[in-house]
Amino acid sequence: MRCSYVLFLSSLLLQFGCGQAPAEPGAVRPSSLYPLPVPFSEIAYSKSFDVDLTASHLINRATIAISNRGSNSVVMPAVFVKGGAGLSRSSILSSIRSAGPLTDEQFALATWSFVSQHNQHYCSAGAPGDAFNYAVDPMRLLHGYGFTCCDQSTDILVWVWRGAGYQARAARMAFHELPEIYYHDAWHAYDADHKVYYLAKDKTTVASVADVIADPSLVASTADADGNDPEGTSAQWMADQFAGATPAYDYSTSSEETTYSLRSSQTFTLRSENSTTSIFHGPSVDEPLGSDAVNSGQFDWELDFARPDWEELTDSSNGVETLMSGTNAFLTNTGTSSGYVIYHLSSPFPVFSLVVSGMVYRQDSTATVSAYIMHDGSHWSTAFPMNAEVGGPLQTTADLTSAALGQYSYFVMLQLSGSAPNAARIAAVHITSEVQVAKTLFPKLVPGTINHLTYQDWIPLQIVSNHRGTKSVVPDANPETHDVEVSVAIQ
After folding, report:
1. Does 244 lie in the same domain as 106?
2. Which domain covers residue 115, as residue numbers?
């Protein structure tokens, strides 16, 4: 059985720059190596909707597709069970604060509980797009993995707490790392990796790392019937390690929130399973994870050169123009030297595969259309030819997976060359990537009942210059006008 439910929502704002560069691949550079995160306000756009699964007996190969049908981008789109939260810091804090006023301890417990529930212990998370194959960005850890080593989960909680205005630090020891938050004139440790916290001698106050080192029996007292802590490690062993520990306190963990956007005419499809046989993880001393430890998703960006604003979607372009031929709007070379367009793509999900496809026309054998990828800001890959037979147009595909594997942020360049203007053309381009997604990002759909879900994204900010030449940031004037389609399918 296949069920499909569609929700129509609305559109937002994002700016992209255009630049010019020489036409040779080795010399072409994006307008910016790593575009800054999209600024956004604390205002979230949320829309509740129901999915009727009363006729479904199980959830099998379910998908949730978020399609941006508007002319502008949407920031950090998410779908989750009503009353829950997305996995961005803004969404987490918004959800926790919506419960009403909380004491400092209640807030610390709520954030610790959220991170613990959306993360499992595994050393470690990472992909080739991370330095040393080791992920440190909390957005990547939460969205692309859902599993972390102790230092990685520590950095997530420190990041969340600092985003709420608290002092927070990481206590790094030879055997373990855990985060501390400061309130009531004292530090308090909450371990999201081992899913535990320790109470001081008064049996009420959450202890600090220093408290535990001074009295390791605080750890041993948390043992279950088997003598283990919630993560399955011997509580006595942990107590013995604390007894001889000398922590180094790290206050340097980043407090910034990276963002990602769904571009105009781009669709992000979440899957309830991993449609690939692959999985990314970092250096590990644990048993290897199977591919079923994560889900997969797909980004598909449809580029329509008939749009009057097609250049606004590029990072940069040079030596190209558009040409209508029949029902197709082609991108074509304007002279006898190479022309190009560059697109920037970025998300917290590491790439399993990357394909560029389109309708290609070649006037003669000297005309070429090629795709390139850059992810280090300096070097383009070798050419991935999209050279259909002379004439056409013909549907053609370039598989960039070998150069894109495990990357999060990269540039794709389409280069068109010919011995005469309009000799090389491409239309109906799709840039399609399959990516790794944390299992906790897909909402828990329940068969046999009506599921109440929420779509959420965040209102971008506009940078406005005043009469003095300085800039101020103001929310988008029309936050209620979206053009987003959300569809849920169950097979």
Report:
1. yes
2. 89-250
